[in-house]
Amino acid sequence: MSNHLIDRLLAPRAGSARPLLDLPDGGALSYGEFGARVNQVARLLTDRGLGPGDRVAAQVPKSWQTLALYLGTIKAGGVFLPLNTAYTAREVGYFVRDAEPRILVCDPGDAGELEPLMASRDADPGGGSLLTLDAAGRGSLADGADTRDTEFDAVPRSPGDLAAILYTSGTTGRAKGAMLTHDNLWSNAEALTDCWRFTVDDVLLHALPVFHTHGLFVATNVLMVAGGRMIFLPGFRIDEIIHCLSRATSMMGVPTFYTRLLQDPRLDHGLVRHVRLFVSGSAPLLAETHDAFWERTGHRILERYGMTETGMNTSNPYEGERRAGTVGPALPGVNVRVVDEQGGETAPAGEIGRVEVRGPNVFPGYWRMPEKTREEFTADGFFITGDLGMLGEDGYLTIVGRSKDLIISGGYNVYPKEIELVLDALPGVGESAIIGVPHPDFGEGVVAVLTGDAPPDEERVRELVSGQLARFKQPRRVFHVDALPRNSMGKVQKNLLREQYADAFSAE
Ligand code: MCA
Ligand code: AMP
Questions:
Q1: Protein residues whose CB sits closer than 6 Å to any atom of ligand 2
Q2: What's the pLDDT score for residue 173?
C-alpha cells in the first residue's frame, strides 16, 4: 500500500533540483531539499512516538519549516492539525483537549503557557510531546530534525485515511474539527491545478497564512502538483507584495488583498505584466473590486468558492467568462445544487435556496461528533453548506448570503455565538448580540451590542476578553442599548441591528 497524498504530491519530484520556494531572506529551496527535510521531520515525529492516525497540532508562525511539518506529519502516517497563530492559550487548550494530539508544536515564546496542556502525554516513548518552531524556522523541531536521516519510507495510508483536521467554529459556540482525508486533499488539488492551468512555469506569490485551507491546501498543494515555485512571504505587507508581484505569474488572496492593492498607486498594468492569474476566495469579492481591478490591471480576478469542510466547490473559468459577483460553475467531479430553504425540492434556476455539495472533495465528518455530522448531511449524501445561493441556467453559482450566523472578517471566520458566550459572562452585561457590518478593509467588522446595568465600554471589553478570544474575533465597536430587538418568537433581530449600525466603520 502507498501513502495516497505523499505519493502524488511529493514523490514525483523527490530529489529534484527544481526550485520550490523563494524565501524572504533571499534564499531558495529545491523540491529535493524540501523533500529531504520532510523526511527528517517524519523521522523525528516517529521517534517521538507518532503512530498512524495520531494528530500533530501546530500553532507556529509561517515558515517553510511549517510546510515541512505539514507534509512530514502526513508522510509519517499522522494527521496535521494547524491552528491560527492568533488563538489564545485558552482557545488552544480546547483544541488540544478535543483532538488529543500526540505532539504539539508551538512558538518558543508560547511554550511556557502551552506546556501544561501536553504534560499529561509526556509518558510517551521518545518523551517530550511539545516541540517548538519560531518565525525563522528555529526551535527544538528544527534542531531535532537537523540530525535525522534524510531518507524515510512513507507510512502507508489509503485514500480514505485522515490527513488533516481543521477546526471551524460553530453556531453553538463550540468549534468542530473537520476531518479531511488524503483523497479530499488530493482530488481537490488535482482538479484545481487542471482548471487553473498551473504548470512548472508558475511562480505563485504566497502571502496567505498556512493554517487554513486557502493558504495551506489550495495554494501549496496546487503548486506542488504542478511542479511550480512559490515566493513564500510571511504575510501581506503591501511594499513586499508590490516588489514581488513584478516576478510572479499568479497570486491567490482574500478580497482584502485586492482592496489593499487597489489603494496603492503603484498597481498598474506594468507591475503585473508577468501575471497570468489572480484568484480570490474565502469571502465575497465585491463586483466593484473586480471591475476596478480589471480597469487598473487588465486582469479579471478569478473568484472561486469553498469551505474548510469541502475544499473548493466552484470556480469561475480560466477560459470563458469570469462573471463578477458569481463564484462560477461547479468544479469537475463536484455536484452543487440549490434546494428550497425547507430542504425539499431543487430550486429552479435563478431562485435562492440552500447550497449543498457532494463530491470527492467533501469531508467525511466532524471529529468525534457523529450527531453533528449527521445533521449537516442530507439522506442522499450532500453536505449542507449553510450558504444561500442561486444557480443560473448556465450553472454559474451566486452566493447571496448565509443561513448560518457567521461573520467573515479579512477572510477569517467569526462565529457570533462564541463571542456572545464570553461577553454575556462579563460583569455588568445583561446580554449581548454580535453582528458583522461593512468594514472598508476587512469586508466585515465585528460589532457588539450590549445591555445591562453597567456594561463595559469598548476599551474595557477589549481588556476583559483579551486572554479569552483571538484579536480578530474581538469586537472593534461596542454599543449599549436598553434592550435587544426581538421578534414575536423572542429571537434577536440581528438584521435590524445590522441596519442600525451599518455605518459603524464608515469613518475608517
Ligand atoms: C488581522 N487583524 C484582523 C484581521 N487580521 N482583524 C480582523 N480581521 C482580520 N482578518 C487585526 C490584528 O489583530 C491587529 O489588531 C490588526 O488587525 C493588524 O494586524 P496585522 O497582523 O497587521 O494584519 P494584517 O497582517 O494586515 O492581516 C490582515 C489580512 C490577514 C492580510 C487580511 O487577516 C489575512 O491574511 N487574512 C487571510 C485569512 C485567510 O487565509 N482566510 C482563509 C480561511 P490590533 O492592531 O487592533 O491589535 S477560509 C478558507 O480557507 C476557505 C476554505 C476558503 O474558501 O478559502
Ligand atoms: P471556512 O469555514 O473558513 O472555510 O469558510 C467558508 C465560508 O466562506 C463559506 O461557507 C462561505 O460562506 C465563505 N466563502 C468562501 N469563498 C467565498 C466566496 N468566493 N464568496 C462568498 N463567500 C465565500
A1: 168, 213, 281-284, 303, 305-308, 327, 385-387, 399, 402, 408, 413
A2: 72
